[in-house]
Amino acid sequence: MSDLVIETTGLRKVFTSLRGERRVAVQGLDLAVPAGGVHGFLGPNGSGKTTTIRMLLGLARPTSGTMRLFGEPVPDHLPQVIGRVGAVVESPKFSPNFSGRRNLQLLAAVIGAPAERVEEAIETVKLGGRENDRYKAYSLGMKQRLAIAATLLKQPDLLILDEPTNGLDPAGIREIRETIRDLGASGVTVLLSSHILAEVQQVCTSATIIGNGRLLASGTVDELLEVGTSYRVKVPDPAAATALLVAAGFAPATIDGELHVDAETPGEITRVLGEAGVWLTELAPLRADLESYFLQLTEGEQLGGDGHPGTSGEAVA
Amino acid sequence: MKRLLQVELTRLLCRRAVLVILALAVVLPLVIGVATTLNSRPPSDDALAEAEAQAAADAAQPYVQRDLRRCLNKPENYLGRPLPDDIQASCEDSILPRAEWYAYWNPLDLAAEREEGSGLAIVILLAILMMLAGTTFAGHDWASGSVSNQLLFEPRRARVWGAKGLVVSVLAGAFTFVVVSLYWLALGLVARSRDIPIGDGLLLDCLQSGWRGAGVAAAAALAGYGLTMFFRSTVAALGVLLAVSVAGGIVLAVIGIDSVWNPGLNIGAIILDGTTYWAEVPCGDDLGGGGMEICSVEKTLSLGRALAFLGPVLAVALAASVATFQKRDVP
After folding, report:
1. B4/chain A closest Cα distance in angstroms
2. Distances, alpha carbon A104 to alpha carbons A11, A107, A271, B147, B162, in Å
3. Which domain holds residue A235?
4. Element containing residue A109 per DSSP (H, E)
5. What is the pLDDT of residue A310?
6. Torsions phi, psi of A38, nearest 5?
7. pLDDT at A30
8. Which of A313, B27, B239, B269 lies at a CB distance of 3.0 to 4.6 Å from B306, suitable for a disulfide?
9. Do B11 and A95 touch (CB under 8 A)?
């Protein structure tokens, strides 16, 4: 049995308008999310993140491709696994005239969760004191917290959060991120969809980057940051090292008196210099931030809405 | 499924719009019942005395006395032939004002109330209100976007659709059943207190008519709900229902289709256990037209025929609603 919590193969979604225009939101996406930790799902607006999540949760039907949650094919076996999945998709959606508590109680009743779990969830997301107010009177941050509380009713093994910090003030963002980190640390697998790169870098252990509905990169955050990074090279004779590296096809640059070399892996640098008898005194990755890498990957990608028909993807009339 | 039904029932009964509709479904029949009772009261002794005085005063008017004299002089002009034995009494009876002309009252008649009076009106009113309840219940879910949240907890869409539909239709049917039963029982008590003969099984006929009306109300609620789930909009569903109920009959009449296909007539046939309608047919020899002219003839639309027409229509609409809910993406 696979240890992947989420797995999609060749996932594709084409939206067709009433006028017959077709737009591809997701095109052949292969997504693999391992069990445990917080996995970032990154992409610019309109890249197909939300559409992918909606397909995984059975809210949208894929045009083609396969999807699995906990190894079970979905949507066919979604009823068997939905009890292990908590999700917030886009903005929270509850009955506006019911209180936060009443909304949670009704959802808890659907899955047969005990009444205490509602109180626990309210406490976990720090909604205490306002839980009896009508939902429509909540601030956006409170709505987001209520949505997360709803996901906790199931005591999920997988939590899918789509842009959970959208519209929150800095304090709210920090609280939500702490909650996500805590959940990830407690053994829950969290898929965090976001276009806020700093958020993913701060919270996630691994990430998948998509653009135009396609997989661009995937791996641990450290791996992603190291791909294609520059290295700071210290050697006794920088001029000789520079000549050797140029001869080997590298493009070293001297910046602030330091030798910077772009390379796929650090081994390529040590091999070239070592074979010529030039011994390194220091070789350190110049850690790129995820933003630089993300922009590099998604350069030229079409920007639009967030995966809805007519707002994203490549037109395939 | 039981949990889902309980949740949907709670959600339905917690909707303020639904509560307002249910309150109207109690208040309006109550008002109609009170009005029917008051309007069918026998006149009081004072009113009767006043009417008698008015009749006597009018009888003394010159123009009335002139008419009376003319009647006595040429009774055939007023009474026709053959003339009655007592011409004086007949002319006075025909010409002179009577007290009941001034104290007119329409005595309570349960059969008339059932067939074309307040009983039929109440059933139709309740059916419309229940349809609105079904429509607003589903429409609110779509407008608030909470359908997607519900599906994250119960992804079996047919179950979700079924639970909502069952709760809406059962509540509408049960509520209407209680209201119309109380209405007819109350009118029955009023009739009994006035010594009006109810007739053999008349009250039971009225109750049965009301119970069939409860079935119509349940179906109307289900239809409103189903169409709203199909269109995902209260306004669109109500627009279609209004078009069918109002424009449908007009269109049928304009293009000359037999009234037997009129939805309103069929609903009436279900409530009344069959009804009659006028149809235009070529006049046959027996109608005196030799087949060349159009004659209006009275036809009967039976309960079975009405059910056989409306049942499949409702079934098709609901099947389309379930199928689209299962297949279409949910926002």
Report:
1. 5
2. 33, 5, 60, 14, 22
3. 230-286
4. helix A100-111
5. 33
6. -110, 120
7. 92
8. B269
9. yes
Closest-CA distance of chain A to residue B2, Å: 9
Each residue's pLDDT, cut to its tens digit, for chain B (331 residues) gives 888 999 899 888 888 899 999 999 999 999 999 998 888 888 888 888 888 899 889 988 999 999 989 998 888 888 888 888 888 899 988 889 888 788 777 888 888 888 888 888 999 999 999 999 999 999 988 988 888 888 988 999 999 999 999 999 999 999 999 999 999 999 988 888 888 887 778 888 889 999 999 999 999 999 999 999 999 989 999 888 888 877 777 887 788 788 888 888 888 889 988 888 888 777 766 655 555 677 788 888 889 999 999 999 999 999 999 999 999 998 8
Confirm if B125 and B33 have CB atoms less than 8 A apart.
Answer: no
Q: Residue A196: which CATH number?
A: 3.40.50.300
| Torsion of the alpha carbons at B172, B178, B183 and B187, rounded to the nearest 10 | 150
Same domain, B236 and B191: yes
- Torsion over CA: B152, B153, B155, B159 (sign): negative
Whether B276 is in a domain gets the answer no
Boundary-marking domain end, from B60, B86, B102: B102
Q: Which residues share a beta bridge with B232?
A: none
Statement to judge: residues A53 and A189 lie in one domain: yes
The beta strands (E) that lie in chain A are given as 4-16, 22-34, 38-42, 64-69, 72-74, 85-88, 158-162, 189-194, 206-211, 214-220, 230-234, 253-255, 258-262, 282-286, 314-315
How long a stretch of residues is chain B? 331
Nearest to B220 by CA among B120, B126, B321: B126
In a domain? residue B176 = yes
Q: Which residues of chain A have pLDDT under 70?
A: 1-2, 225-229, 287-293, 295-317
Residues A254 and A129 in one domain: no
Name B214's Cβ contacts closer than 8 Å, sequence gap at least 6: B173, B174, B176, B177, B180
Q: What is the CATH number of the domain that holds A238?
A: 3.30.70
In a shared domain, residues A72 and A201: yes
State the pTM of this model: 0.77
Q: Are residues B97 and B192 in the same domain?
A: no
| DSSP-assigned letter for residue B81 | S
A79, A93, A97: residue with CB nearest B149 = A93
Contact A110 B329 (CB under 8 A): no
Chain B residues whose beta carbon lies within 8 Å of the beta carbon of residue A61: 327, 329
How many angstroms separate the CA of residue A69 from the nearest CA in chain B? 14
Q: Which residues pair with B301 in a beta bridge?
A: B275
Give CA–CA dist B11/B273, Å, rounded.
35
Asked if residue A172 lies in contact with residue A4, where contact means CB atoms within 8 angstroms, the answer is: no
Cα-Cα-Cα-Cα dihedral of A97, A100, A103, A105, to 10°? -140
Output the six-digit token pair for B145: 């976007």
d(CA A85, CA A82): 5
Q: What is the pLDDT of residue A251?
A: 85
From the list A92, A109, A150, which residue is nearest B6 (CB)?
A109
Residue type at position A119: E
